[in-house]
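Structure record:
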Amino acid sequence: MSDKKEKKPRTIDISILLFPLCIIALLAVMIFVYPDRAAFIIGELHNFFVNRLGIFYIGMGIFVLSAAVAIACSKYGTIKLGNMEKPRYSGFKWGSMIFTATMAADILYWSLIEWGYYYGANPTLGDSLNALQRQQIASTYPFFHWGPIPWAFYILPAAAYAYMFYVKRGPRQTLSEACRPILKNRIDSGLGKVIDVVSVVGLLGGTATTFALATPLMTNAIKQLFGITAGNGLTIAVLLANGVIFTLAVLWGMKAIAALAVACVVIFGVLLSYVFFLGPTRFIIESGISGIGNMIQNFVGMATWTDPLRLTGDGVSGFPQQWTIFYWAYWIAWFVATPFFIAKISEGRTIRTMIGGAFFYGIAGTFTSFTVFGGYGLYQQVTGRVDAAQMLLNDAAPSEVILRLFDQLPGTNIVLVLLVMAMLAFYSSTFDAITLVVAGFCHKRLRTDEQPDKRLRAFWAGVFVILPIALIWSEGTLTMLQTVSIIAAFPLSIIMLFIIFSFIKQLKARERA
């Protein structure tokens, strides 16, 4: 890749630039004007895709993980991605960008609070749980939901894209181009447009979910730090600050993005160390080891559990429907951009080292986060200091629960400063990566060594900030658009299958050549 100024103008694909925005805008207007009717329709669709077709997502996860491992361990794993003698980025810098360019802001958020939902749930066949069982479930399921299967949704498509970039030297950087070996010339017609437009629409919905989850935590932390009371104005200021940081990084190119990723990891490491050494260190270590061990021991059962009798939850959907299937759909909704970025930074590696390294850095980062933050929060629960699970059951705001947990640490204000800095860095690092990728979608032709037009990068950076700002006045609209992103995961999963089978077909064709 090159950050040099473009020598010649490129043709912009207006349909990819405008259609997704028009669709999202139309959905937002319809939801705002007809909220009750929209809520009913979206609820029915959500029930159908998550509850009725949940087995599809379960099977999809098992297949993608199995295929990723099989390809990495096969003879195809030795194929080198590009002609560089050594990888473009060092292992640490490469791993930092992989971790921070994913749903890193969400990873930080969920590692602080996800265990609390599981502690208060009852994922068994109707049996009551004692405190030990609740602790085991709360410390085990986060590792499963952020472990090998969801990371495979990113890493296997990333390997396919990297092969398209650095071996086949494809003329475009889009999802439809990755489907060409299967769909052939149909990609150049309306079908290719549909694939790319649906992909960007799903991504826009997914980004709304990330902003919705993490922004309240940052704003409430700032309020507590400075003792202020502010509403939407502070939220807008936080979003704009994020926008400025990741827009500048995107415009400055890959060197700035790589530097921001490393800074993000450093800040994150300081926050982790603070909580680890000043918190219940022994409990954190032992809880993390136990949770990972339980996850490994019960992995097959957890990966295939569908709760067919629906004996848990609200009587409509059980634990795997509410959590596992939700997570698989959510990760799929993000596969549009994140794997592209992983592919872009993997030149010079083999398929095997790319897949293996991405699994290592991704899982190491998420497991460390959930071990330290999750273990700290779970300790406050089981020792009776903060009943976070009951607060969540009583519909307390998750950000309020997280701040209550941090109040138990010495030097709370120091923790909050580190938290805000880490979330700002994670936000910016994640969104500069997806902005760079989506800008590339909008070019009719874009070589692997070229960067998208800077005007497009700035345009999409603005979209990723303006969209959540426009939605913060309507919580119902935002929530339903998040549901739209989950519904969009179904067609996106079909596109993912096309990409995977296209990748396998190319590998086999290379062997026969």
Notes: The longest helix spans residues 475-512. DSSP finds 22 helices and no strands in the chain.
